[in-house]
Design goal:
Elements (H helix, E strand, L loop, with lengths): L4 E5 L14 E3 L21 E2 L2 E2 H10 L3 E4 L23 E2 L7 E2 L5 H11 L2 E6 L6 H12 L5 H8 L10 E4 L12 H13 L7 E8 L3 H10 L7 E8 L14 H28 L6 E9 L18 H16 L4 E7 L9 E4 L2 E4 L1 H9 L6 E3 L1 E4 L2 E4 L2 E4 L1 E7 L5 E7 L6 E6 L7 E8 L18 E2 L3 E4 L2 E6 L3 E8 L1
Parallel strand pairs: 1-22, 2-5, 2-13, 5-8, 8-9, 9-10, 10-11, 11-12, 12-13
Antiparallel strand pairs: 1-17, 3-4, 6-7, 14-15, 16-20, 18-19, 20-21, 21-27, 22-26, 23-24, 23-27, 25-26
The structure holds alpha-L-arabinofuranose.
Alpha-L-arabinofuranose (AHR) binds next to loops.
Protein name: non-reducing end alpha-L-arabinofuranosidase
Keywords: Carbohydrate metabolism, Glycosidase, Hydrolase, Signal
Subunit structure: Homohexamer; trimer of dimers.
Length: about 500
């Protein structure tokens, strides 16, 4: 147990860039994420552009959303993209097998999604169906959205009103192939992946293999062994901060014991990315293939009275802390983790936005993503951290987490969290230079872990100016209150 919190920031020698795509998001046809979330239809009274809510677009642009994954999740391996193009009244319906058994009318399809990405100024990440789909279907989808030639698929796109192709780089080849994506073995999936990846055509495709479930290291090892590097640009990993899949506990009225267990699961991400990266290093020492954590976040019981298949949960300071520590972990592993997608953007799991008819609230998680966006495409500054413990009963977790970067204008940002709900943490940070002259900061904090933004108090939690930091020479002294997420800005 350390007696003091200290950190030493080193000027990066190998100049690792924190890919902005670490700050990506995920939107599935699940509950009210798309329908009643992003998409209200163009006849709605809620101000919209081609059916997509304008307030959501503005909020996500402010937060900076670099990429958005769609249409699943488990839904992706049931989705036939040709059902979602052409005149809306002619589109066939399907039943959403995984999520509440609701009827999906396919009114939100490929054009709707890709046009929405243009509005959001975000790069689309399409998840292909290899569970119930075919190689031809996925190859056709790639052609349909990306090809500028004359060919049956791009001609069909033009007939449907879009002349120029969209810019789609990121492609998922199946989802959770070990589970809802087809209950495959890693050997079987790796061979399937090769077949699908071979027939996807384009010059700048970024093909992402369906990755391991948390600590299934055998999965990653098998994929890296079987799939040749010229066919794959990313290997995925899914890990949720969950206490127990059979007893997840409430999103708001949780105990400190439940809080501790959730944070333990969130902090396990450090070990996960370290070990999956080490396996990838064996087969890909030059780190050409990215580790893509394309599903992460807190997962609790649904709110009382809501459809259990809709995964709707409130979002408290616990979620803010999950986001803060996890993004620090991803930043510190940016040499291998080059994309990550929080699950999910609107009204599902650890959402950044919740809606209730025309009302919209920004969750504490939103505020963390917005505070941390200064790291997007900045150069990582490695940090050596010694932290005191957050002790609960006979167990302990590191109280403080940190990451740092220098942006293109030479401004340094440090993000810190204190997950201890009772004790403030003072930390002394030795900086990479004593040339800094100007220090400012922002903080997201609250007295009680269980606090959240409701539709009647939407601004209860938001970031405010932070004054508990002082700069002297090359040393920074910071006092982090309990339950806090802080961003500091240092200028020379
Ligand atoms: O995000 C919800 C679900 O969690 C996704 O559909 C699936 O991939 C994962 O199991």
């Amino acid at each position: 147990n350390a007696q003091q919190n200290t950190a030493v920031i080193r000027a990066g020698q190998n100049k690792t860039v924190i890919s902005k795509y670490i700050y990506s998001h995920f939107a599935e046809h699940l509950g009210r994420c798309i329908y009643g979330g992003f998409y209200v239809g163009d006849t709605s009274k809620i101000p919209n552009t081609a059916g997509v809510r304008n307030d959501i677009v503005a909020a996500l642009k402010k937060m900076k959303i670099p990429s958005l994954r769609w249409p699943g999740g488990c839904f992706a391996d049931t989705y036939h993209w040709k059902d979602g193009i052409g005149p809306k009244d002619k589109r066939p319906s399907i039943v959403n097998k995984w999520w509440g058994g609701v009827t999906e009318d396919n009114s939100f399809g490929t054009h709707d999604f890709l046009n929405m990405c243009e509005l959001l100024n975000t790069d689309p990440y399409l998840a292909g169906n290899i569970g119930s789909g075919t190689v031809q279907e996925l190859a056709d989808w790639v052609q349909y959205v990306s090809s500028d030639n004359k060919n049956p698929m791009s001609n069909l796109r033009r007939e449907n009103g879009r002349d120029k192709p969209w810019d789609v780089r990121f492609w998922g080849v199946g989802n959770e192939a070990w589970g809802c994506g087809g209950n495959m073995t890693p050997e079987y999936y790796a061979n399937e992946f090769k077949k699908y990846a071979t027939f996807m055509t384009g010059d700048k495709l970024f093909r992402i293999a369906s990755g391991a479930n948390s600590a299934d290291y055998h999965w990653t090892e098998t994929l890296m062994k079987i799939i040749p590097s010229h066919l794959v640009e990313g290997v995925a990993l899914h890990h949720y901060s969950v206490i127990d899949w059979n007893k997840k506990g409430p999103a708001v009225k949780y105990t400190e014991d439940q809080y501790f267990r959730t944070m333990k699961s969130a902090l396990f991400m450090e070990e996960l990315v370290t070990k999956h990266s080490a396996i990838m290093d064996k087969y890909d020492p030059q780190k050409k293939i990215a580790l893509v954590v394309d599903e992460w976040g807190g997962w609790y019981d649904v709110e009382e009275g809501t459809n259990p298949g809709f995964l709707f949960q409130q979002n408290t300071m616990r979620d803010a802390l999950i986001a803060g520590v996890t993004l620090n972990i991803f930043n510190n592993h940016a040499d291998r983790v080059r994309m990550a997608n929080l699950a999910q953007a609107i009204n599902v799991l650890q959402a950044v936005i919740l809606t209730d008819k025309e009302k919209m609230i920004l969750t504490p998680t939103y505020h963390v993503l917005e505070m941390y966006n200064v790291h997007q495409d900045a150069t990582l500054l490695p940090v050596e951290l010694t932290t005191k413990d957050y002790v609960f009963g006979n167990e302990k977790l590191p109280a403080v987490s940190v990451s740092a970067s220098a942006d293109k204008a030479g401004v340094t940002h440090i993000t810190l969290t204190n997950i201890d709900p009772k004790n403030a943490q003072e930390i002394e940070i030795t900086l990479d230079t004593s040339a800094y002259k100007n220090l400012t900061g922002r903080i997201l904090t609250s007295k009680t872990l269980q606090d959240y933004n409701s539709f009647s108090t939407p601004d209860k939690l938001k970031s405010v100016a932070f004054k508990e930091a002082s700069l002297k020479g090359g040393k920074l002294k910071v006092k982090l209150p309990p339950i806090s997420v802080v961003v500091l800005e240092l200028k020379k």
